[in-house]
């Protein structure tokens, strides 16, 4: 078994016992990348020289001894919208083709402090707008389980690199499902934390009231280790929550006796593939066998979530993306006679179609005469959606359903119609609107492609999500399956 | 009924500082019309007495002492500049 197929705790032990050193791990990562990256294409840039130097330093200075730092020496990769000082950061966009951040995102800094080694930056849909990686300004990442299929998005590179064992784990970001949907499509574990739990300082903003950074891993335990390292208040992010961070690892008790699960009927309704539904029902049986009970509930405003989300996220994006004007950073158009042309041409040449479409939608929804009808209306419906969740959580500990209505689709299959593409996120979007945390864990296969089980928790109750996810993982074999590349 | 006209698309593009070709205007008019038409379903809901959610968490202003401190050094700030002169961002003429 390759080193990178082991768990965080196993690798930590091996380092501790000096059976391996950090250089072995970094070598294993770059070896695997050279073997499979041609097929998967998960990365936008590699940080090889620096990663190898850091590995050597850790080996020399610490003589391989990782100390108490559980993540020390472990190879990680970051979605390319997370700023990394001196390492090109594009957010998947041509407009940032030449951008080298002058500071690290808080999460990158915390991982550095923890001793994790950044192997490279991962492909994504441009500015995190997309569900397939086909909107990347650079290339399309492939699904490691079948390279004719999309890896999902927008954190497609983050999920594919972990599924393909190119790195041990990765970070993604999730605005409407961008961690959970690719995690489901690639058969790995992806958590969107509670809004505000993880600092967004240094994350290139898409929709600021929804964006959240989170971990993608192969096991639930590894996910908890990674969240532990990045969660917590940050004075540099005004939306960062000042809450006490629990010990996530100690929440993995293996005991879910008496746990109350809600299953929204809207999440298993028409449009959800029968095989996906079957896998979710099997998962519920497994959890029942472990002492949990479940009941059908209703989240009555679910069907309005998609429209609400596209109005709000596009409006926020149109404001956030106004900073890309070709003046202070990024790519500037060569043909501009005056300042207005410089703005317009730099933006029109630098942004792809989906980004333009959403900037247009957002600008329209915020424009004079339409603000109340679209933007404010959507904010009010958001309240109704949030209330749906609060109601259910009065009587239940978690909400469970599929992560996505179907498994991964073929590359090119949905690129013509934006609304069909948006429908992929119908089960993940309500979670972002409510700001609650949710995980996707593998729960089987349909036609050789992974199916994801979504477990949604109360605000700041990642511990219960991890406990349930871990019990499910321990009781099943799904997480042990590996793609053949 | 059409929700958005070509002229509106052109107007919005100007507000968003995007220049679109005639072809792009056609495509965007059709696509935005479909998306906005889809969003009309929100009008099925009576939200008369519902407060809008701008943010899911309770946010409070965070204040600190107003002390002078180091900022980003000028060289650093200019590192990614497409063009510069005399330590400042350089742009073409305004008009």
TrEMBL record, chain A:
SUPFAM superfamilies, sorted: Amidase signature (AS) enzymes (SSF75304)
Catalytic activity from the UniProt record: L-glutamyl-tRNA(Gln) + L-glutamine + ATP + H2O = L-glutaminyl-tRNA(Gln) + L-glutamate + ADP + phosphate + H(+)
Domain of life from the UniProt record: Bacteria
Enzyme class: ligase
UniProt keyword annotations, A-Z: ATP-binding, Ligase, Nucleotide-binding, Protein biosynthesis
InterPro entries assigned to the protein according to its UniProt record, in alphabetical order: Amidase, Amidase_CS, Amidase_dom, AS_sf, GatA
Domain Amidase: residue ranges: 24-465
Enzyme Commission number(s) of this protein: 6.3.5.7
Active-site residues per Swiss-Prot or TrEMBL entry: 79, 154, 178
Pfam families: Amidase
Subunit structure: Heterotrimer of A, B and C subunits.
PANTHER family, per database record: GLUTAMYL-TRNA(GLN) AMIDOTRANSFERASE SUBUNIT A, TRANSAMIDASE
Purpose of the protein: Allows the formation of correctly charged Gln-tRNA(Gln) through the transamidation of misacylated Glu-tRNA(Gln) in organisms which lack glutaminyl-tRNA synthetase. The reaction takes place in the presence of glutamine and ATP through an activated gamma-phospho-Glu-tRNA(Gln).
NCBIfam families to which the protein is assigned, alphabetical: gatA
HAMAP family for this protein: GatA
UniProt similarity note: Belongs to the amidase family. GatA subfamily.
Protein name (Swiss-Prot/TrEMBL): Glutamyl-tRNA(Gln) amidotransferase subunit A
UniProtKB/TrEMBL annotation, chain B:
Bias (Basic and acidic residues): 68-88
Alphabetized UniProt keyword annotations: ATP-binding, Ligase, Nucleotide-binding, Protein biosynthesis
InterPro entries recorded: Asp/Glu-ADT_sf_sub_c (IPR036113), GatC (IPR003837)
Coiled-coil portions: none
Reactions catalysed: L-aspartyl-tRNA(Asn) + L-glutamine + ATP + H2O = L-asparaginyl-tRNA(Asn) + L-glutamate + ADP + phosphate + 2 H(+); L-glutamyl-tRNA(Gln) + L-glutamine + ATP + H2O = L-glutaminyl-tRNA(Gln) + L-glutamate + ADP + phosphate + H(+)
Enzyme class per UniProt: ligase
Pfam families: GatC
Region described as Disordered: spans on this chain: 68-95
Signal peptide: none
Enzyme nomenclature, EC number: 6.3.5.-
Claim: Cell division is one of the keywords in the record: no
PANTHER family: GLUTAMYL-TRNA(GLN) AMIDOTRANSFERASE SUBUNIT C, MITOCHONDRIAL
Self-association and partners: Heterotrimer of A, B and C subunits.
UniProt xrefs under HAMAP family: GatC (MF_00122)
Family affiliation: Belongs to the GatC family.
Task of the protein: Allows the formation of correctly charged Asn-tRNA(Asn) or Gln-tRNA(Gln) through the transamidation of misacylated Asp-tRNA(Asn) or Glu-tRNA(Gln) in organisms which lack either or both of asparaginyl-tRNA or glutaminyl-tRNA synthetases. The reaction takes place in the presence of glutamine and ATP through an activated phospho-Asp-tRNA(Asn) or phospho-Glu-tRNA(Gln).
Entry protein name: Aspartyl/glutamyl-tRNA(Asn/Gln) amidotransferase subunit C
Organism of this sequence: Fictibacillus fluitans
Source species taxonomy: Bacteria, Bacillati, Bacillota, Bacilli, Bacillales
Gene that this polypeptide is encoded by: gatC
